[in-house]
């Protein structure tokens, strides 16, 4: 004689598939009300976070946090000048080159490609340059633009330190010769200068 279990007398629905029956277990009331409440809440959430008010969206909050983090980073190095010595020095500092890379990927890949291989703009990974004769010219092109506006100026959109660091990053791309659909453009120019090492401080006697 088979043992009767609590499930034998449990209510079932009228559904049956190949002899498999379905218990009639409705969703708990609290779950249904939670679902209704989420639907009622959603338009208020949308209006608050996506209604156009500055600083409320996740993207705006991320931008604010990123800007604050950038300010903290720049406090370590002060104000940088886009001169030869500074660019040659910072292109050999991996941590700061990564900051320049993030600026590049946020602003430059639509024209120069994700790796600098060139799209609308020229290939930055070969040895040929159109508007650059020395390392300082990289920053000048970023600051002032070039090509009659084909390369826009970024002086009004980037922090001066961001310009220096993205210039240093672009300088590191030279000679990687990433495969590109753009041929050589411009002239082959002399190598970048070697970085000048900071002289150690002499302790006071």
TrEMBL record:
The Cytochrome c domain is annotated at 95-174
Q: What class of enzyme is it?
A: oxidoreductase
Cite the PANTHER family for this sequence: CBB3-TYPE CYTOCHROME C OXIDASE SUBUNIT FIXP
Q: Where is this region: Disordered?
A: 177-205
InterPro entries given for it? Answer: CcoP_N, CcoP_N_sf, Cyt_c-like_dom, Cyt_c-like_dom_sf, Cyt_C_IC, Cytochrome_c_Oxidase_Subunit
The protein in question is named Cytochrome c oxidase (Chain III, cbb3-type)
As one GO molecular function, the record gives:
heme binding
User: What SUPFAM superfamilies does the record point to?
Assistant: Cytochrome c
**Which Gene3D superfamilies does the UniProt entry name for this protein?**
6.10.280.130, Cytochrome c-like domain
Q: Which Enzyme Commission number(s) are listed? A: 1.9.3.1
């Amino acid at each position: 004689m088979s043992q009767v279990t609590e499930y034998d007398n449990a209510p079932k629905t009228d559904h049956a598939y190949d002899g498999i029956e379905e218990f009639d277990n409705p969703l708990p009331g609290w779950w249904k009300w939670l679902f209704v409440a989420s639907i009622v809440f959603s338009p208020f959430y949308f209006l608050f976070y996506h209604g156009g008010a500055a600083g409320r969206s996740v993207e705006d909050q991320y931008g604010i946090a990123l800007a604050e983090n950038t300010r903290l980073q720049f406090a370590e190095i002060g104000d940088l000048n886009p001169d030869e010595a500074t660019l040659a020095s910072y292109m050999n500092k991996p941590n700061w080159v990564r900051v320049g890379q993030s600026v590049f990927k946020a602003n430059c890949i639509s024209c120069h490609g994700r790796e600098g291989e060139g799209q609308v703009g020229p290939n930055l990974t070969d040895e040929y340059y159109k508007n650059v004769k020395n390392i300082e010219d990289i920053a000048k092109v970023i600051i002032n633009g070039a090509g009659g506006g084909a390369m826009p100026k970024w002086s009004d959109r980037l922090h001066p330190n961001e310009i220096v660091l993205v210039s240093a990053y672009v300088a590191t791309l030279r000679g990687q010769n990433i495969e590109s659909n753009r041929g050589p453009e411009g002239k082959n120019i002399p190598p970048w200068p070697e970085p000048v090492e900071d002289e150690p401080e002499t302790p006071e006697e």
